[in-house]
Design a protein that fits this description.
389 residues, mainly alpha, two-stranded parallel sheet
Length: 389
Amino acid sequence: MTEYQPLSTVRETLKVKWYRSKIDGATLKRLSARSDAQAWFQAGGHLALFLLTGSLAFWCWSQGAWLGFLIALFLHGTVVSFFVGVAPHELGHGSVFATKWLNQFFLYLYSLLSWWDPFDYASSHTYHHRYTLHPEGDRENLLPLEPSLKSTFMLQLFTVNLLTQRGRTFGKGGLLSTIWVTILGAFGRVGDPDIPINEWINTLHEDQPDEYRKSIWWSRLHLAFHGTVTLVSLLTGYWVFILLIPVAPFIANWLAYFVGLPQHCGLMENVPDFRKSVRSMTLPPIAEFLYWRMNWHTEHHMYAGVPCYNLKALYQTIAHDMPQPRTLVGAWREMRMIWQRQKTEPGYAFDTPLPPTAQPTPVPGGEAPGPATELEASIGDLAPKGLSG
């Protein structure tokens, strides 16, 4: 296993001078403004879809309409899949609601419903933004990532994800591994340290002990909440609620996987240019809504304080300096091509082409970008107390 420096040392020694497309201060301030109205549409709308598809599945179950029930449950799982790490991601940045307590309320609500740990993730994701794809300081996504289309994996994604284990990205995986990881977490433990993501979580716990303690209590809350729902459902005979709440995040994970994996897969490490290490895509409106507009992922990394509902406008403002967004199909073709080449060239990474109007990527030893303003470098309210400042 690779030996890494302590994160306290990384914070002192690794200073990435990020290139950001130029944007005037007034425009950036306008795009960074948070709106409760737009936040209610996004966060409230996603929750409304959860209630709508859940109610439809319950009604079909109560009527014995089993084909309708399976279709509704598939739709419900597709909606809830985006609770896992997507809704808590934006809410974790604190950039959705202008009213801070609403942001916190929805963060904890979505995290509770999806078995998500917002405390470990806040630590991890702060490093991810500050050191994107610089493995010394960002092991949230460890490359290479395989854009898998294996039949057994696809079967789980289109039915119930039971067995997917933690691998090279942050998250708990399938239902069984999530329950096991949550039980371990409730006792302050992490799984096999030879698994890269577990090494990263252990490192974060050493670096941020206050967040570690919160994570332990959050794991216990997960077990209490989902255990209570399961027990009450069984005792009352309404077993369907086990599928609609505790199991729902692991049903029909297909769309969340297809739109989520392209963020960094196959791209370049150790470059100070988000255009080379992050991938943006265009998506149909419903997929973009469920994904909380994170298909504009390069723009999100470049100006992480901009709310998700303003990212498309941000792209339009700096489009002359940005790569052409991929389509979803185009992104997957690109990733599969990269993966095939990486089998014989393990060090290969795709060099995203820039348009003729774009500024080139800064070269080592060349003229570095000037210091970023506070608004330009903002990652919202993501950083926990131990990493703020």
